[in-house]
Amino acid sequence: VQLQACGGGLVQAGGSLRLSCAASGGTISKYTIAWFRQAPGKEREFVAFIRWSGSTVHADSVKDRFTISRDNAKNTVYLQMNSLESEDTAVYYCRARRPVTPVLDYWGQGTQVTVSS
Fold first, then answer.
1. What are phi and psi of 84, to 5 degrees?
2. How many CB atoms are closer than 10 A to CB 104?
3. Which of 39, 52, 65, 106 has the largest CB neighbor count within 10 A?
């Protein structure tokens, strides 16, 4: 499975962006898909994940502002980001993990999100 993350860009504080993580080379319908982000000089941190069932978990720092969703027909997961803050500036990565043996784990390349204040 290959993951392609896109949708990043430059946005003013308070604005919105929608990131996409499109998978190819296999279906991700049974995978847990997560978004992580890494700001300059900081460690990569968890943002949100969505299970194959559709249940979601969001980090406290983005709860009520970001929403993860999936469209299995399009083999794509989205991250809708609203009310963006300068602290959200980071490279965003998507990850696909199949949580059954054998466990499979894939990362996409990052997409840059820059929020100007």
1. -65, 145
2. 13
3. 106
CA distances from 103 to 30, 31, 67, 98, 100 (A): 12, 10, 26, 5, 5
Residue of 99, 117, 107, 97 lying closest to 44 (CA atoms) = 107
Lowest model confidence (mean pLDDT) among 41-45, 74-78, 96-100, 111-115: 96-100
| Segment 3-14, tens digit of pLDDT | 999 999 999 999
Q: What is the rounded distance in angstroms from the CA atom of residue 20 to the CA atom of residue 76?
A: 7
CB 1 within 8 A of CB 107: no
Q: Summarize pLDDT for 16-62 with one digit per residue, the tens.
A: 999 999 999 999 999 999 999 999 999 999 999 999 999 999 999 99
Tokens 């100007």, residue located: 116
